[in-house]
Design brief:
Helix content: 40-55%
Strand order of the largest sheet: 4-3-5-6-7
Shape: elongated
Mean pLDDT: 88
Number of strands: 7
Structural class: alpha/beta
Largest sheet: 5 strands, mixed
Radius of gyration: 21 Å
Strand content: 5-15%
Length: about 210
């Protein structure tokens, strides 16, 4: 791909590093931005700079937030005794869109995957265990994707809390095996939250 401008080439190269964006798509996006009013493109640039400089992770649930304690964790109308364990922020957004869950979340930041070199120490598991041990938690809901890595992570956390008295459940398998949570439709996801089952039952089903 030949460029008439080094500035254009640099912009396309940077844009093409985004997931799912090839060089041709990056070029189309950059040319689109050049055709927009300068104020609009500058606002986009400003919002990205502010995101990089000011976004933080919630000190309680590790969700992306503007402040130390996110709006969900600081909302007194939420049931703080029920924790929904998810992989990342996209899963929080997916579950929130169903309107079927009123507890709080804990974002692990990934799943255990030996092949990718991701172990328990690379995830926010220890803070989850401390949260359960140090607070009045009645139920822990596993809402990781129905994959081998998701099941492995669920089982690891379950074993860490096996001797505790809290109720441990998992979302019903209305979500297809192998599917990522964020791509599940709202109705199916909502029903899987409402009709969650004891995690021990899911282990028996797998075996």
């Amino acid at each position: 791909m030949n460029f008439s401008s080094k500035l254009l080439e640099n912009a396309v190269n940077e844009m093409s590093q985004l997931p799912g964006i090839g060089k041709r798509t990056a070029l189309r996006l950059v040319l689109f931005l050049l055709q927009q009013p300068n104020s609009q493109t500058k606002e986009l640039s400003k919002s990205l700079n502010e995101l990089i400089d000011n976004v933080v992770l919630c000190e309680s649930c590790h969700n992306i937030s503007d402040i130390e304690l996110c709006e969900i964790c600081s909302n007194n109308k939420r049931n703080k005794s029920i924790i929904c364990v998810v992989e990342d922020i996209r899963d929080v957004m997916a579950i929130e869109s169903t309107g079927q869950f009123n507890g709080i979340y804990h974002v692990l930041g990934g799943k255990i995957s030996p092949i990718e070199g991701i172990g328990p120490n690379q995830l926010n598991i220890s803070s989850l265990i401390k949260k359960v041990e140090n607070n009045d938690i009645s139920e822990l809901i596993f809402a990781l994707s129905a994959t081998m890595e998701g099941d492995t992570t669920n089982f690891y956390v379950y074993k860490q809390l096996e001797n505790s008295e809290i109720k441990i459940t998992t979302i019903a398998r209305g979500v297809s095996v192998g599917n990522e949570l964020e791509f599940t439709d709202e109705v199916t996801l909502g029903r899987s939250i409402v009709k969650r089952i004891p995690f021990e039952n899911s282990i028996k089903n797998i075996s």
